[in-house]
Design brief:
With 504 residues, the chain is an alpha/beta fold. The chain folds into 2 domains: 70-428, TIM Barrel; 443-503, Seminal Fluid Protein  PDC-109 (Domain B) (Ribbon). It has helices spanning 19-24, 26-36, 127-130, 141-153, 172-175, 179-189, 210-226, 262-266, 295-301, 322-335, 358-370, 400-411, 416-421; strands at 77-82, 106-112, 157-164, 193-198, 234-237, 307-308, 338-344, 382-386, 468-471, 474-478, 496-501. The strands form 2 sheets. Strands 1-2-3-4-5-6-7-8 form an 8-stranded parallel beta barrel, surrounded by 5 helices. A 3-stranded antiparallel sheet has the order 9-10-11, with no helix packed on it. The longest helix has 17 residues, at 210-226.
Length: 504
């Protein structure tokens, strides 16, 4: 499976031997750590990245318009749901996606191409056009519309996530973005809004340079123009966890977490500034090339955001994860967005050097519930997790859903002890699947297929080259337009190309 996971410094594990070199040369350490760490109004209004301080004293007017979406009026628990894991709905409308428990308040449905192509009313969500990897059949968007509608009626808001690690590797995804087509897809399917998961070149290491700051600022600003808060559209972003802490390249002298205050904040010396694999020190959070990357973006477009669900994972071994919440909370109090602290079902792909245990999840949720050092109690901040389908590699039956169930209980006032004792009570929830108006056009269901691929349906054509189908315990993809009743295996020179065997 291709990697869609975000990594701030995923190459650091393979470069662990270089840390002795870091200790000998600060300049060399800065250079190598930069390599490791994974619409603008006018050019003059884009904050510049560089070794400078961006002071809050210049903030004069901040639009604190409240979003009309009612899902933001309670603590948020967000889970990423990879589209490639979703199979076709059963006839009663059930799937792993539509039966998610209500421990999840918001789903980031991942990932669509930032430069997706979509014609309003077509319901064509083929991977070639949108990047989504579910319901690959003619008008498969009708099935997705039904699924999203079911979750909406069950009180769960689904947000379209754009980008991820994979889709930012091609330059056209940065520049060839049609915001109207994104909105058209959001409206047709019934998404609650969008999440900009911006990982330039597949990591966060370059996210704080001037060009990428300008890109993300433009993405947020142009989206907001078409999808206003007054209409209830949610605009979110999922940046690096250290993005609001002052760094060497992006800083804010007015912030309690400015780069110059790093030793006071952590109580640690610079001897550990680049020791990201040391599990006893947290000052390394100030040492990544991506540290501070979100400061100029927030100052340019923070008032246009509803949620920052920062990725506080794949960020080394630093034990004090609360620093990341507090640093973002400082800006959340100024600009009015909500926060979701990103966690990860063990094990993290980079390292792992830090384990997000159930106890950690509960304690973190309690800290957020109480408001942290920036007094945000009652602001409805919460927890995000990658991803809902992952099973803990630690020999437990905890999944992303279990973690969010614990978090939601604590965020809503339960004790950490009670929440952990009832971590699995969501399994007693019997989802009631509504029937109207979730399936207004009765889209054809070709069956559940196998290996996450929809079964071949002889009644429909397959116009999009590269569409995969499940047939006779094998996976095929079409080489060109396929008419109805052109079965795989019927002709070795026909339109279907064998991909792999699939026993399930």
């Amino acid at each position: 499976m291709k990697q869609h996971l975000s990594t701030d410094d995923k190459n650091l594990s393979s470069g662990k031997k270089l840390y002795n070199f870091f200790k000998k040369s600060t300049a060399a350490g800065l250079f190598l750590l930069t390599a490791f760490s994974s619409c603008k109004k006018s050019e003059n209004e884009i904050p510049q990245s560089g070794n400078q301080s961006l002071s809050n004293s210049k903030i004069t007017q901040v639009n604190l318009e409240r979003n009309a979406n009612p899902s933001l009026s309670k603590p948020i628990t967000i889970g990423y749901y990879p589209s490639w894991t979703e199979g076709w709905l059963n006839e009663d409308g059930k799937s792993a996606f539509t039966t998610l428990p209500t421990a999840v308040t918001h789903v980031f449905f991942a990932f669509a191409k930032p430069n997706l192509k979509y014609i309003k009313g077509s319901y064509d969500i083929s991977t070639a056009n949108t990047g989504l990897e579910c319901y690959q059949a003619t008008q498969g968007g009708l099935m997705l519309k039904r699924a999203v509608g079911i979750l909406k009626q069950r009180g769960i808001t689904v947000i379209l996530s754009l980008g991820g690690e994979t889709y930012w590797r091609a330059q056209e995804n940065f520049n060839d973005i049609n915001y109207q087509q994104i909105k058209d897809l959001v409206d047709d399917i019934g998404f609650g809004g969008i999440d900009w998961d911006f990982e330039p070149n597949g990591s966060f290491s370059e996210s704080g340079n001037a060009a990428n700051v300008a890109y993300l600022t433009r993405f947020i600003t142009e989206s907001r123009k078409l999808m206003p808060k007054s209409a209830g559209y949610i605009i979110a972003t999922a940046p690096v966890g250290s993005g609001a802490m002052g760094g060497l390249n992006n800083d804010d002298a007015a912030s309690p977490f400015a780069y110059s205050k790093r030793n006071t904040v952590t109580g640690e010396s610079d001897s550990y500034l680049y020791s990201a694999t040391d599990g006893t020190k947290s000052i390394s959070l100030f040492g990544f090339s991506s540290t501070g990357a979100m400061i100029p973006v927030i100052k340019a477009a923070g008032d246009k955001l509803d949620i920052i669900a920062y990725q506080a994972y794949n960020i080394g071994a630093a034990p004090n994860r609360k620093l990341m919440y507090d640093s973002y909370a400082y800006y959340a109090n100024i600009y009015g967005f909500q926060l979701a602290h990103g966690t990860h079902v063990p094990n993290e792909p980079w390292g792992p050097y830090f384990e997000h245990t159930p106890q950690f999840e509960a304690d973190l949720a309690k800290y957020i519930h109480d408001g942290g050092t920036q007094s945000r109690a009652g602001k409805n901040d919460g927890i995000m997790i990658w991803n809902l389908n992952l099973l803990s590699a630690k020999g437990t039956n905890y999944t992303g859903v279990t973690y969010l169930n614990v978090a939601k209980k604590v965020l809503n006032g339960q004790t950490t002890t009670a929440a952990l004792a009832n971590a699995f009570d969501y399994k007693n929830e019997i989802p009631v699947i509504p029937t109207d108006p979730t399936n207004p056009t009765n889209p054809t269901n070709p069956g559940t297929g196998g290996c996450g691929i929809a079964a071949y349906n002889a009644a429909i054509p397959y116009p999009t080259t590269g569409t995969k189908v499940f047939y006779n315990k094998k996976i095929y993809k079409n080489k060109w337009y396929v008419n109805p009743n052109e079965l795989p295996e019927a002709n070795q020179w026909g339109p279907w190309e064998f991909v792999e065997n699939c026993a399930s």
